[in-house]
């Protein structure tokens, strides 16, 4: 299945990775390929990727796995290694890994030599349904997540569900959280799928991608509709930062963030009260939350550097119903 974005295609198909060389050769004429990946993916897929891309001369940069690598220091180190390996402005970079690898590599591609072509090859469920779609790239700062970045289109996104076979249950669940979010803001059928703990198929992956694709095509630069994708993320990012990106993974953090968003929506009269228990139960059943839940007052200071803040207030996402997200504005003092 091919999905068309404004400037690139998304290929969603099992074993599509085996056709990677053909896709690359359709627009790239050089022998050298540069790959950025993390140590976990490299351990699992190093030999496989070399066999798939055996017609190219590969230069591989390996970073430590985890959000702690999405920093200025790692960004500079990756650039230094790529330059030492001889990368030039017309060379192609492959981002092979989860969201951290994709965001970091995309930012390297956007900025090194003022722009290099790159391909996203997401290997986690979370990155397949979320971070690889929409052209947002960037790194974290000590003051918050994704505060330095750009909008930069890849040449291609290859989404192959075969990579999901090597994910741990906890890592898999992080993608489930983003899919539940997608269902809550725009696709009731997708949300209802997760009321049972079934394994996702290509169908559900496509449904989640289509939610994001539709929103991004309407609002590519995050000025209006695209903000809906941040449901649960204001407080979720605050939780990740508060615990130094170690205790809670992204999907878990935004799941607690979604509960807080429901509470705020109920308080503002935007969200029907009965939604809370249904959503809470679904998140808990999928292994994403457990008591005690976070309280708004414990995170107020941590949300002040959220990138959704304007000078007067910040944009906040609530639900008016399952499958219907709404954008509102809130001042911290109103919480």
UniProtKB/TrEMBL annotation:
Spans traversing the lipid bilayer: none
One GO MF term attached to the UniProt entry: metal ion binding
Domain annotation 3-dehydroquinate synthase C-terminal: ranges: 175-308
Keyword Ligase tagged: no
Reaction(s) this enzyme catalyzes, per UniProt: 7-phospho-2-dehydro-3-deoxy-D-arabino-heptonate = 3-dehydroquinate + phosphate
Keywords: Amino-acid biosynthesis, Aromatic amino acid biosynthesis, Cobalt, Cytoplasm, Lyase, Metal-binding, NAD, Nucleotide-binding, Zinc
Stretches assigned to the 3-dehydroquinate synthase N-terminal domain: 61-173
GO annotations of cellular component type: cytoplasm
One Pfam family here: DHQS_C
One annotated GO biological process: aromatic amino acid family biosynthetic process
Location of this chain's protein in the cell: Cytoplasm
Pathway of action: Metabolic intermediate biosynthesis; chorismate biosynthesis; chorismate from D-erythrose 4-phosphate and phosphoenolpyruvate: step 2/7
Cofactor: Co(2+); Zn(2+); NAD(+)
Name of the top EC class for this enzyme: lyase
Assigned EC number: 4.2.3.4
Family indicated by similarity: Belongs to the sugar phosphate cyclases superfamily. Dehydroquinate synthase family.
Record protein name field: 3-dehydroquinate synthase
